[in-house]
Amino acid sequence: MARDYYQILNVAKDAGVEDIKKAYRRLAMKFHPDVNRDNPRAEEYFREITEAYGVLVDADKRRRYDRGLAFQREDVYQDIFARQDFREVFDGLPIGKEWLERLLTVGRVIAYEALVTGGRPADVLKRSFMRLAADRAAKLFHNVMDIHEDISIPSDVASLGGQITIEYRPGFGRKRIRVSIPESTRSGTTLRIPGMGRKNLASRAGDLYLHVSIASL
Known about the structure:
single chain, 3-stranded mixed sheet, two-stranded antiparallel sheet, HSP40/DNAj peptide-binding domain
């Protein structure tokens, strides 16, 4: 065996499922990278204890592990999120989805579907693939239909807020619109104007992004 999962979780070889969950939660709280920012080992240790948990909490994996079979870490993680009774160990832990994605190499979409929506493993994967397809389509649409413009605004408007008129080209002709500038706007700010980008044949429009610089006096 490459790793001693029992030793990693500090549990006996005859430990029950609840003992394994308690041991994992205790170690997850102790080694969460948010409270171990000065310890470069914390992130890897968090991955190790999660891998150990994923194998020992699963009766079938545990039997095969005890016979000397090794597992791919990523497969173990995916199986944790596919089972409600396995992933409930995360309930109440101060671990956001962004940490789960980063630490456990679980895709954001699959983590979301498993943690928030739940269901059978096949249903989780099906919804995940559908969401991924929709996300890709939306990204492609915005890559084509969004418009990015550089604008320069007076320093007093940037400081106090107000409105300015801009002119840009969303299609064949030019268009003039009034834009509200928030108070205390800084150079480098990007303002998003929803629905003011290019339109497709179905009259669905992208967004307009205004990249702000402050005019010098």
